[in-house]
Design goal:
The complex is a heterodimer of chains A (115) and B (110).
Chain A: E1 4-7, E2 10-13, E3 19-25, E4 31-37, E5 43-50, E6 53-57, E7 64-70, E8 73-78, E9 87-94, E10 105-106, E11 110-114
Chain B: E1 9-13, E2 18-23, E3 31-38, E4 45-50, E5 55-56, E6 61-64, E7 70-75, E8 84-92, E9 104-109
Parallel strand pairs in B: 1-9
Antiparallel strand pairs in B: 2-7, 3-4, 3-8, 5-6, 6-7, 8-9
The chains are: A mainly beta (115), B mainly beta (110).
């Protein structure tokens, strides 16, 4: 069973479109994250949710809107896609009560290509 | 922002120990040292972490200098599957995110 699963794995779309990436974790974790890895391979945090509440928003354009329907899911919706949004997006989760372990569990990534 | 400095790349012969250094000279007392790796086309994977004592688990050993300004991740018997980018990260106790730097690209050579 995949612990953190993301769909779709690959997404190719045109500029200006709206798209969503879904993430689900079956680890019972309280905290979920979205990271973006650009073409230069820098991995940067975008958002963090704890028990469906937003706790980190790292100056991401408001075209990006995370949605957490429950603590096992954190979806990423992107409006008006731009060329610069092309990247691999990683979802991750961690147990809030064990913050000192610092162990995040990452999904396999979703590669978004904007044409 | 990443508070660590790592070599851009390293090679290691298969079966030998891989020693990956990391400088974190501005580390504060409540910050842990974490190591993650990212194998090509996969999500990052946790390896090990420590505060001031040396740590060992089934994947690796972490050696932290006494002044805590640097550390070394040791993969005792590197295999081809250990080829990856290795990230050294410092993180405050109670923080709930990780900031990744540029990491070290380790290539294990047959």
């Amino acid at each position: 069973d995949t612990a953190v699963s993301q769909t779709p794995k690959y997404l190719v779309t045109q500029m200006g479109n709206d798209k969503s990436i879904k993430c689900e974790q079956n680890l019972g974790h309280d905290t979920m994250y979205w990271y973006k890895q650009d073409s230069k391979k820098f991995l940067k945090i975008m958002f963090s949710y704890n028990n469906k509440e937003l706790i980190i928003n790292e100056t991401v354009p408001n075209r990006f809107s995370p949605k957490s329907p429950d603590k096992a899911h954190l979806n990423l919706h992107i409006n008006s896609l731009e060329l610069g949004d092309s990247a691999v997006y990683f979802c991750a989760s961690s147990p809030w009560t064990s913050q000192d372990t610092g162990e995040l569990f990452f999904g396999e990534g979703s590669r978004l290509t904007v044409l | 922002d990443a508070k660590t400095t790592q070599p851009t790349s390293m090679d290691c012969a298969e079966g030998r120990a891989a020693n990956l250094p990391c400088n974190h000279s501005t580390i504060s007392g409540n910050e842990y040292v974490y190591w993650y790796r990212q194998i090509h086309s996969q999500g990052p994977q946790y390896i090990i972490h420590g505060l001031k004592n040396n740590e060992t688990n089934e994947m690796a050993s972490l050696i932290i200098t006494e002044d805590r300004k640097s550390s070394t991740l040791i993969l005792p018997h590197a295999t081809l599957r250990d080829t990856a980018v290795y990230y050294c990260i410092v993180r405050e106790t109670g923080a709930n995110n990780l900031f990744f730097g540029t990491g070290t690209r380790l290539t294990v050579i047959p």
